[in-house]
Specification:
The chain has 99 residues and is mainly alpha-helical. It has one domain. The protein is 82% helix and 0% strand. The chain contains five helices and no strands.
């Protein structure tokens, strides 16, 4: 276990710095830009769906853990994508002229 951390020390530092940088960038986003950025980020979860489908396609039929995690990733990623588009649609409806 200790060897894992020693061997991957550089990668662990990169992940920690990425998390800190992401928190700093997100915390400085103005409130008016929060909804469009979040809906766009949710739409990017289509990549998660494709990755989960690939994992499920390469998993053995008796590997229930990979199949279950892949199914959950597809399900949650789909919910996130649909939610992102719903939020974007509601946001764009605010800018249309009322009859």
């Amino acid at each position: 276990m200790v060897n894992f951390f020693i061997e991957n020390q550089d990668l662990i530092y990169i992940v920690i710095l990425s998390i800190l940088l992401g928190v700093e960038v997100i915390s400085n986003v103005p409130a008016i830009l929060h909804t469009p950025l979040m809906s766009g980020a949710n739409a990017i979860h289509g990549v998660v769906i494709i990755g989960a489908i690939i994992v499920m396609g390469h998993a053995h039929s008796d590997d229930y853990l990979a199949l279950t995690l892949g199914f959950l990733a597809v399900l949650l990623g789909t919910l996130n994508v649909v939610g992102g588009f719903v939020v974007t649609n509601r946001m764009l409806e605010m800018f249309k002229k009322k009859k």
